[in-house]
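Sample intake sheet
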Amino acid sequence: MNAPLGVSEMVRGLPIFTEDGDRMTSVIAYVYKNHSLAFVGTKSGKMKKIRVDGPTNSALEYEIVQVVDTGPILRDMAFSMDHEHLYIMSEKQLTRVPVESCGQYKTCSTCLGSGDPHCGWCVLHNTCTRKERCERSSEPRRFASEMKQCVRLTVHPNNISVSQYNVLLVLETYNVPELSAGVNCTFEDLSEMDGLVVGNQIQCISPAAKEVPQIIMENGDHHIVQLQLKSKETGMTFASTSFVFYNCSVHNSCLSCVESPYRCHWCKYRHVCTHDPRSCSFQEGRVKLPEDCPQLLQADKILVPVEVIKPITLKAKNLPQPQSGQRGYECILTIQGNEQRVPALRFNSSSVQCQNTSYSYEGMEINSLPVELTVVWNGNFNIDNPAQNKVHLYKCGAMRDSCGLCLKADPDFECGWCEGQNQCTLKHHCPIQENQWLELSGTKGKCTNPRITDIIPVTGPREGGTKVTIRGENLGLEFRDIASHVKVAGVECKPLVEGYIPAEQIVCEMGEAKPSQHAGFVEICVAECKPEFMARSSQLYYFMTLTLSDLKPKRGPVSGGTQVTITGTNLNAGSNVVVTFGRQPCLFYRRSTKHIVCNTTASDDGFDKVKVSVRVDKAKIHQELQFEYMEDPTILRIEPEWSIISGNTPIAVWGTHLDLIQNPQIRAKHGGKEHVNICEVQNATEMTCQAPALPVDPNHQSELTERPEEFGFILDNVQSLLILNKTNFTYYPNPVFEAFNPSGILELKPGTPIILKGKNLIPPVTGGNAKLNYTVLIGEKPCVVTVSDVQLLCESPNLIGRHKVMARVGGLEFSPGMVYISPDSPLSLPAIVSIAVAGGLLIIFIVAVLIAYKRKSRESDLTLKRLQMQMDNLESRVALECKEAFAELQTDIHELTSDLDGAGIPFLDYRTYTMRVLFPGIEDHPVLRDLEVPGYRQERVEKGLKLFAQLINNKVFLLSFIRTLESQRSFSMRDRGNVASLIMTVLQSKLEYATDVLKQLLADLIDKNLESKNHPKLLLRRTESVAEKMLTNWFTFLLYKFLKECAGEPLFSLFCAIKQQMEKGPIDSITGEARYSLSEDKLIRQQIDYKTLVLSCVNPDNVNSPEIPVKILNCDTITQVKEKILDAIFKNVPCSHRPKAADMDLEWRQVSGARMILQDEDITTKIENDWKRLNTLAHYQVPDGSVVALVSKQVTAYNAVNNSTVSRTSASKYENMIRYTGSPDSLRSRTPMITPDLESGVKMWHLVKNHEHGDQKEGDRGSKMVSEIYLTRLLATKGTLQKFVDDLFETIFSTAHRGSALPLAIKYMFDFLDEQADKHNIHDPHVRHTWKSNCLPLRFWVNMIKNPQFVFDIHKNSITDACLSVVAQTFMDSCSTSEHRLGKDSPSNKLLYAKDIPSYKNWVERYYSDIGKMPAISDQDMNAYLAEQSRMHMNEFNTMSALSEIYSYVGKYSEEILGALDQDDQAGKQKLAYKLEQVITLMSIDS
């Protein structure tokens, strides 16, 4: 009992503080300066500080402190002896907390407004503290304990201009203690100075010039700083106020200047804003008030038609008169982003006119475009435009395609319909003829030819009332035009004012139709029913009969909300549907032909069956349908009455009439947000729901249980169940799982249970039987789960390997990581025994193998030693061979080069050289001969070709001609090369023009290459276009001088060096293979014994002169001997001027005086097993030092008999009889093959027998493995030729070599390629490098290296060709940017120079870089150079013959070429197609 003894009245407690959410667990109180203070601990570990000022006032909770991280505060709390601290206990810790924490408040107002009675403001120390801790707090105004005692500060003036310095500022202070120790004034971090204290005023000086802040446009026109007072006694700031520095000059318009809150003035004539009015140059030019600013006045809409010259006059006030030296007025119109400046005239201070000009804008989808208008004077002095006047540019014709739309336009536009042109125009744009221009105000302001484009709906009930919308053109301009002339399917339809859109739309209401009327068109008259004012629709309007058949559901709750579907026929007819259930409307939702869907509203008549009626427009559909209003559902019980924050746990619901509801939902609202979830009805009294989630911020999901503000059900329109009052539905915290470990992988043995740790796994429901339905999946398989509060135990299914673990509960999914279940297979006894037996057998087997291995390895050791000795032997032989060969070659080459001064190199003349490159393989080309044409046609043909030459010299024609040819499918690769070469021969005398055309073609080729998404590096790689072959020919013409003066010498030296080196060893005269070779394919892969002989040869020109010594091999065939002798005797004679070996016989003059003719084949030739071996010097046993002579051919008996054979074998064996200047590929195909003699089937051989003919004998090629040993000979050959290869490459890849400058053509073409790369934004250095390589080294130099016979008068045999191909391949690899990874399977020609290629690549990169750094060649210099080249070689080719050759392609593709010229605009202007037809006429045979 709360009652003292003997008193009848109870003592009643008055609650002064209640807490719903965080339950209170402990309390302690004490009194401080007449304030009762309570300290309350809570369940969540917080401490609340509460002040109680008396029984009538409620308590003030002034601070909450989180004391403990987890768990509640326990009941017992205690103060320290001085009451400054409080001791607080939780389950695991004891904490000392200060009773006040005043130091957290940083300003006087927050300190005194905190409500903590301990706290006050210590003024000069600028801190919040207890009074006893503030120094000299008893002195007046040093300690503030009430809000009104806080220090206040004002300053005068409180703003100054940034251009004012050292201004005296007076600060008024309130509630400040005496400041005898002095005070400082501080402008934030700008400056600090002493303040002068005078009573309650303090005087400060504003900052000096260098300290004033810079104010720039972006930050507005002012800068706010804190002006602070600092006590010299404490060194602390104790008061501050805002102080403004403003900058007038930021303003660039008069109005913004004078309307600024600061002291700004506008100087009208200088167009500047200043704080100092004295700086304005003219007294009358100074403005302080907005109404005195120069400004444009509000104008009526300024309308300017497009493309019409018209002035614009503007009203204004205070317009300044430009002074001497100042420019006049201009108008600036910004039209679609483009600025148009128009001169303007100032009439007086209140009027200005933009001069006569026309304006235009893009596009026909805007009929009126508002354009910014600015009036300026003196270039950029803007006149303010406060009314934001705009100029409206307009086009009558834009978006006004019909007469009605035209006349409906704003009358101010003065647009009218021009009937002649059928478009909307201004009057003066319409040709003046009678009655051609209609305008709204005119006597004939009516549009003819109305048109109906659409009617909606197209069906309706016979009873009428349907609102029909008719859309079209020219449907009148006023409602009265159409008010009485609309018929739909023969029935009057009354137009409605509210639906009428002039000219475009009529909405009318249908009258009733007669039973005989079924369908018809819509017909209208505009104003009068004359034919030109009448229109008829293309669509028909039908009258329909509507019927109903059923509705469902047939019952629903009395509160409504049921969605009912009514079925029938033609239900989509008409325009308006009204459905009523009894007296209640059913809200229309949607309809189709067979359905109307509507939502019921609440019934006023209670539970009853009601009649359903449907009205469509004026038709009432007669059909007996009924709907029953039933009692609203109720909710009696829900179980369980809890869920987790994320919801989605099952809830069972019991109630009545639940089956009336179509889509029941359950809802929870919290913190103003609502979540809903779905329910499923089981029967009239039961349904199951998924709990809704509680809308809580996921970052602040507390560990507390939460109650939703509202909890209930959405059951159609039943309002009473939206909030269930009788439930205590509670939300518990979501379960939280921990990851397995940092790696996220848990390793287990099979059968071991998986443990998932966490918290809140069982909700702390009162009664304690709460269960959450957990699903745990291991991979795809579920496992049996046992749950406790902090862990889930999962019986792992029968799995092994790695699997993802996934835990699901409610709406949550969490994966703590992966499990790895390692297989564990215990062995049975039989398995152990069998393993032991197998192990024993294995050991015996291993011992046996080891013994055998030992024996074998002893044998292989011996073999290895033998091989080692052989290899050492071979190595020393290779080294020796290299040294010897190099020494020999150096002396030989020295002998050779000493004889070859500049004149000794047999250069071909310019014409032969160019012909061999341009037309390879063709000896006597038509361009070298005069034009052959019958006499009677000669004059016509020459005239035609001269005309054709003019066309070829026309760039438009030539480009069109080339492009057309290239687009023809039958125009082959050979044709492309041929046309390119012919064009270059014709343009030899006009190289400037040829270069221009070439650049254009190359630019097109680059565009095409990039458009077709090819890799840019493929450009110029192959000759697939005329442009590429023309580029080769261009370099051919322009690099001849460089070849002669510079690059020819090292190229010729390399050729001679290869030839000499090859001929120092055996060369098979049939297969073309040699002992010394750079090419693996042409290497003799077996040991051949031979000796070098020196023969003395009689000089054929002078028999008495000394005999010439010639080095020969005893294994050489007789033809090879003859060739070597010819080389020795005629070494300074070009090849074409020497006698042929085939025309000479070799005569051996023996010591006895006998003379013997030696031949490749004669009666002494040996034949074995169908193999006939060619005769050699060894066969004839010619000794060293013998004398031989070359004599003219004699026909012997043997020769006569075997003439056919010899000529055939000669043709197939000896290239020396084939004078060939073609490409190396075709040359290689001429390599002699072994041709069996057709009559006898005998096969020829010289040093080695061909693989393909079986009969392999010991000593022939032998097995592949052994033959690879001879590959080291490639190295020996490479070593001896290295210097010559290096010399050649160095000459080609240096910008200034042997005193010869870089040819201009190279620099010019490389700069052109760089320009193209820049144009296409290609900055990849590899692509640029590749383009240059494809353009010059791979297109020109490789050709010269492989085919020196293009440059020199020499004969090249197949072995020399093979070696040059290897050098050329190395050259190509050096120019490539890609890295080739080489291995033992790479081709030998790549491996051979693998170590040299990186340094060659550096040369190439340096060469390109040096060229790039050279100054660019001006077009003038280049043209001068090209003109000089043209002049030097003016008459090398017969132009007429070349033109005739080109013309043959015109004949073949004349239709296509003429077609292309017709389509080309420029060609059309120059009448090129006509000129070409003239040429065709002149050239045709039958003309």
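Comment: The two ends are 143 Å apart (CA to CA). The chain has a mean pLDDT of 84.
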